[in-house]
Description:
The protein is 34% helix and 36% strand. With 111 residues, the chain is of the alpha+beta class. It has a single domain (2-109), classed as CATH 3.90.470.10. The strands form two sheets. The protein has a three-stranded antiparallel sheet. It has a two-stranded antiparallel ribbon with strand order 3-4. The model has no long low-confidence stretch (mean pLDDT 94).
Amino acid sequence: MQVQAYTKYARMSPRKIREVTQAIQGRNAAEAVEVLRFIPRKSARLVSKTLQSAIANAENNNNLSSDALKVESATVEQGPTFKRFRPAARGSAHPYKKATSHIRIILSDEG
């Protein structure tokens, strides 16, 4: 059985989050939570929150034990980009982009 959790419109670029999700692919869910706890990055907190949500979904909605859960996949997709402008010299404006991401974590019971 598979259980999933989403975090949509996370205010961080997908590339930064993917570096963290690679560390938890294929691990036991409890082990993945411990790994994320010791990564000192904002993206680790976002992924950890999504992982905790997926574990809670498995326990409350599907009556699965959290001990038997494994991270089957942790994917990060690009969300919409906010386009903003910064004032520059001589009354001009320089554009910049604020990236967003969608985090999806799929857990499966190992049994």
